[in-house]
Amino acid sequence: MEVVLTFGLVSVILGTASGAQNIGIIGALGVGGYIALAGLWASPLSGASMNPTRSFAPDLVANDFTSYWVYLAGPLLGAALAVVGAYILRGRGGGLAGSQAAQGALFTEPKKPDKA
Question: Count of alpha carbons within 13 Å of 10, Cβ hemisphere only?
């Protein structure tokens, strides 16, 4: 469950709040909405941690690390799968055009020289 939840979370982040896909304040609403819905849906199943650090403190206080590996391996695997999926679907990304688009530029294609 942690793999699926983290895959969804990182996919939403990469699709709304990174580089050329940055959609401003609405990206934060999308990410926050996903976290809220994932927490409501998956909390009874796995606790809906999606963050190894968030699960560490309760295990530290209880001095019980028997199932902590799930909350460490699940988010790492889910995040890695989301990045691979984004790479397959959108390519490498970055570059000058992506940076300009992230800054709000509408026309990011390089200008062609005029023919004389």
Answer: 22
Q: Please tell me the predicted confidence (pLDDT) of residue 84.
A: 93
Fold classification of 2-102 is: Glycerol uptake facilitator protein (1.20.1080)
On whether the CB atoms of residues 109 and 32 are closer than 8 A, the answer is no
pTM for the predicted model, two decimal places: 0.72
Rounded CA separation 93/12 (Å): 16
How confident is the model over 47-88, as pLDDT tens digits? 777 878 888 888 899 998 888 888 889 889 999 999 999 888
Question: Under a CB-based contact definition with an 8 Å cutoff, are residues 70 and 59 in contact?
Answer: no
Cα-to-chain-centroid distance, residue 39: 16
